[in-house]
Structures are given as structure tokens and as C-alpha cells.
Amino acid sequence: MPGSFSEIPFFRIVLAFIAGLLLYGLEVRISIFILPALALFFLVLAYTSGKTVWNYSLMGMALFLLILLSGFYRVQTTDQIGTLNHFSTQQCEGDELLLRARIDEVNDRTNFTRLLISVKEAACSQKPESASMAGGRLLLQIRNTDSSTLLIPGQTIEFTGKIGAIPQARNPHAFSFKDFMARQRVYHRGFLDGEELNILDKNPSQLTSRIHRFRKSFLSNLKTHTNMEETPGLITGIVLGDKSLMDDQIYSAFRDVGAAHVLAVSGLHVGIVYSLFYLFLKRAPSIPKALITLTGVWAFILFAGAPPSAIRAGSMFSLFCLGQLFQKKAHSINILSFCAFLHLFYDPNLLADIGFQFSYMALLGILVFFRKINAFLPIPNKWIQPLRDLVSLSIAAQIGVLPLSIYYFNQASPYFMFSSIFSITGAYLILTGGLLVGLLGFILPKPATVMGWLMDYLCWILAEIMKLFNTLPAASFKELHLTIPELLVIYGLIVLFALIIYQRMVQWKKPVILAMGLLVFTGFSHSYHKMQTHAVYIYSVGNEVLIDLFSPHRINTVKSPTLKDRTEKFAAAGNRMVYKSGNRQSDTLYLNEERSLKLIRGKQSDLVIVKGKVPTNLIEITNRPFHLILTYNSSLSADQKESIRSASPLSIISGGANTRRTAVNLEEVAQQLDVPYGNSFHRYVKIKDL
Fold first, then answer.
1. Which of 70, 462, 470, 549 has a CA between 20 and 30 Å from the CA of residue 256?
2. Is the dihedral of CA 323, 325, 326, 327 positive or negative?
3. What is the C-alpha to C-alpha distance for residues 417 and 396, in angstroms, rounded to an integer?
4. Which run of H or E residues covers position 420?
5. Residues 127-163 pLDDT 10s
6. 608-615, Cβ contacts within 8 angstroms, sequence gap of 24 or more
7. How far is CA 484 from CA 181, 247, 575, in A?
8. CB 311 within 8 A of CB 266
């Protein structure tokens, strides 16, 4: 912790820059002429001002505004460059696009290959002569064929196809693939067969293609020199962050006990590689040691696919290493802030990236809390000091990322500090051993086989330990939910807590404790409010039916018997977390009969769910106002329309299992009755005040 803010100027700079990025996100628009005017004002003020507290404060505010506006215009410029000549602006009137692009990333899956490409030229397929320079990134999914196995980064490809925008999530609080890809500035996707793809240069000389070939050979060595089925998946998860080969049960165990961070290449992995070089080169001269260490670290980062989190960590370790080499000292938080500023200036969209947020908050937590926690924990014997350091490191990192983890993933584990001891130790050994197996496989097959045998048992032991943690009582608290204001309040309290333990704001001790108690009470009252809520959600699940009816202390679910559990969880799990469904009694009704009608009584009105043909006596079903949900209807006859009109429902919802013709007819009836209409095939429908 710095003695004063003057020791960490880049921390203040990056805060002002982030404020500018957030200001742009609020869709505030500022004239471009304000920035040079403010810069001129700052220069004049600096030249003419005297040495008074007022003038220093005024200069500080002017400098803060200058950096804020720099962030604002930087993200604005980035957005304009991203949309200039974007391939999606081609006007082809329904015609397919002819695109030429460079492959940036290749992700092989079981039945398909996913490409992330940068478009270079675009034209309408019927007018190839109209090809012109274009920009933009695209997600392309290739059905696996012989040609798709030859795809490597750096290649130039050409194809013709229909490109569509990535759709928004169709259900409330569900994972939004659109938002996830938008953080990478990818807004469109396409689907092709391998035969529709033309590879223009099959053997590019770019560094990325060579690394890709080396990675494939490395993976082949892992499979060749290990025997247990789960070993290659766990090694590639820890070494490369590639979880495609991992067993689902093992990955779930890591995730539920708060140890999934070791399965994504991050600062932890870069730190392990850095420590290995530092250990082996401890007695080497300073300059060769620094050069070899930095070369090895960045070689590992490139080999791991150069994920942003690893690049950020590599930048920090490089600055630390160069500082030691030239005997220059700087505060760790200042170096961290400097790296954050460089990364955000290069790509302002990183601010919305989950990996960026997690890596920097984890490092900030370690830098602020590690020493205090380490000093607080007793150490009866010096031999257990590494164990204490691991516990302190885990707790400090979790203080930084736990609120984010709850916000994004809605779960937390009370055993994270214990599971991290095993997961971090295991990651250190498996990363080292996995690299040896893959590299020795090229030159010394027999030692690689021996090392692979050791890795088999080490991976098996680590997986079993994570599974054991997962069987403990209350291994993972799920259905946790935080709003953005609550998240900001929690981080504000963490900052105040840090200032208190460093004796900076002792007088705030009681207010902070009171604020924490108020936060807990607010969370309880929020949960209580949700428990008293009446709400109906008709989820979008294709040609199936899934309806949740929330009432005080109870949730009723209506669904079709053929609905898969995985589909139900994906569609409704996030919304059920918000409504605290785990604290309510649950009842499930199935639409089993060929023709069925279900009447559910609400507080102010009823809900009538009809499967198949609408009964002619619909008006006699209930003597109260009601909402109508019609599903599994193939044809809406004139008699059925008249039955609905006579009953005059409060709203009409078409279930996803209806035909398109039925949906159109229901919308016409709703317009005639002037009542709300919803179609759950495209997006979920919510009914208020049932």
C-alpha cells in the first residue's frame, strides 16, 4: 500500500482514463474541440499559476478532465475505425457476400471448427468485380471435413455465404453470446461446409501458423506419452487454457469449489514460468538472466495462444524484470496501473472483458492485502511458510475477484482458500511436467513416457481432490445475485477496509462496519422482496414449452415432457437465481395429454394454458380476467378465433410449439381486441401482476 497517492500517479491517470471510457458508454456526446481547448487551458494555467494550493487544485482538476476526455475520444476513435468500411455495410439486397479474410484464431471442436477471422475484402457474390477493401471481424463455424483440418492461423481464405448478426439472448438473465463476442468487437457470424471454403495460401510463413503447428504436435505428444483418458485434457487446460478435451465432471468440480482459474492461462501461469526460469538461473549474471527469462516467458505466452490475460501478466513481469536489471524501483500498484493504461489505450473495449477485470482485480487484491494477511496468519514452523504464503495469496486474490465472480457466475465456494492450496500446487507441478512431456516427446520419447506416467497419477490425484471438495457440505453456494450498484458498493467497502487496516482512515472504522451491516440487511430485504413477487415467465425454448410462475414462497413450472434438462437449465437458471427459486417450494406440471387445458389461479387474474385446439367454451373456463397461452396449435380455425374473441383475455401469448400460421392469426386476434401479444418462439414473454 503506498504512503500517499503521489507515489502512484499512474493509478490516478488510469482512473481518469476509465472514467472517460465509461462516459462514452453512457452515450454522452462531447464536441471534439473541447479536448484541444482544455489542453491549451492546462498549458496556460501551468505557465501562469503561482505556487498556491488553489492553483494546484485547479491544475489537478484540469489534468483529470484532460485525461478523461482523452479516454472518451480514444474509445470513440476506435469505434469509428471498427465501423468504417465494415463488411456488413455491403448492400447486396439479400444476395450472399463474397469475402476474403485472414484467419486469426482456430478452435477445433468435435464436430466443427470455429474460426475468428478479419475481413480484408468484400463484394456481392453476383458482382465479384465490385470487390473493395473492407474491415470487421467475423465468427465462422465450419462443419468438419478434410479441408477444415488444414486450417491454421495466418492463412488467407475466400468464401461465399450469408452472414447474419449474432442474436441477443432470448431468455432473461441467460448467457448472452452476443455480448460476449461484442467485447471482442465481433458482431456477425456465418456457417459453412468445408468444401465452400477456398484456402488461398495453404502454407503461410507467419509466426502464428508455425505456433499452431507446434501446438498440434505438442498435443499429439501428450496423447502419445500418457495413458489415462483425462490426463491430456487436464494438462491442456492448465498449460494452454484449452478445456475442449476436459471431462465435464472434472471441470465442474474445479468450477464449483472456486479453482477454475487454474484452467485459464493467466498471471498465475506466467508467474509459474517466470519463477522456473528465475530458479534455474538464480546464479547467472543479471543481463543474461533477464534476457533468457523474458524470452522464455514470452515464448510461453505465444505458445499458449497469447490470451489477453497472459499478455497483461507478461507486461507486468517484463517491467519488474527490467526494473531489477536497471536497479530502478517503482511501486507495484504504479506498475500495474501503467500496464492497465497501456492495454486500455491500445484497446478500450478490454474494459468490458471479463478476463481483463478478473486479472487486474486479482493482482490488485494481492498487492494490497497479501502482506497484511500473511502477517496475521501464525506460522509455528518455517517449513510451512510456503503453505501460509499460498493461503494468503489465495485469500488476497479472492478479496479482489469474489464480488466479480458472484456477479458474473452467481456462485461462490466457502472452501476456496483450501482448494486453492491444492489447485495452485497442482498447477505448478502439472504445468512444469506437462511442458516437459510435450517437449521431450520431440527428442527423447522414453523420458517423455516416464514423465507422462508421473503426470497420469498427478492429474488423477488433483482431479480426485477437487471432486472430494465438491462432495463436502455446502461446497458451493449457488443462486447468488448481485446488481451493478450492489457490486460497486461492495468494492467501495473493500477500499475503505483497506484504508482502515493500513491506518489511513481509522476514524471510519465504525461507519464501515455499519455500512457492511446495512449491505447485508439490504441483501436480505432484496431477497425478501423477490420472495413476495408475483411473476410469470414464458421462456423461449424452440418447439417446447417452459413456463415459470413465481408466487410468494412457491414456484410452479409448466413444461412439456420432452423438454431436455439441459435446455431448461440454460433458459431458466439465471432468472430463477434472481427470483431465489431455491428458497421456494417447487411444483411441476406436465403438458401430457394430446389436448389439455390448465387453469392457474393468480392474485388478481388467472392464467389459462391451452395445448392444441382452443375449446369453444373458453369464456366459461374462468369467471375472472385471465391471460391466454396457446401452444402446440397447428391451425387456428375461425371457431377458435371467435372463442378467443368472446372470452376477451387480458393478453395473448403464442407458445414456441405453434405453427407460424397460428402465431400470425393470434397476433391478428390480439390486435382486434387491442390487448398485448407475445411470441415466445423469438423471445421470452413476461406477465406482470398475475
1. 549
2. positive
3. 10
4. helix 416-443
5. 766 667 777 888 988 876 655 457 777 788 888 888 8
6. 608/649, 609/547, 609/558, 611/545, 613/640, 614/640, 614/643, 614/644, 615/643
7. 21, 34, 16
8. no
Interhelix angle for 207-225 vs 231-239, to 10°? 150
Nearest CA among 674, 679, 686 for reference residue 662: 679
**Largest Cα span, the chain:** 92
Range 597-602, long-range pairs (CB < 8 A, 24+ positions): 597/621, 598/558, 600/549, 600/556, 600/558, 602/534, 602/551, 602/690
The string of DSSP letters for 109-122 reads -SSEEEEEEEEEEE
682, 668 Cβ separation under 8 angstroms = no
d(CA 675, CA 685): 14
CA 74 – CA 76 distance, rounded (Å) = 5
Nearest to 76 by CA among 119, 37, 23, 34: 23
How many residues are listed for the chain in this entry? 690
Which grid cell sits at 160?
461465399
- Within 8 A by CB and 6+ apart from 363, the residues are 267, 316, 336, 397, 400
The mean pLDDT value for 618-627 works out to 85
CA pair distance 279, 345, nearest whole angstrom: 34
Burial of 497-511, coded b for 16+ CB within 10 Å and e otherwise, reads bbbbbeeebeeeeee
For residues 515 and 421, what is the distance between their CA atoms, to the nearest angstrom?
32
pTM: 0.72
CA gap 115, 102 in Å, rounded? 10
- The DSSP-derived string for 262-323 is GGS-SHHHHHHHHHHHHHHTTTS-HHHHHHHHHHHHHHHHHHTT--HHHHHHHHHHHHHHHH
209-243 confidence digits (pLDDT tens): 777 778 888 888 888 888 877 777 788 888 777 77
Query: Residue 79's closest CA among 5, 187, 227, 213?
Result: 187
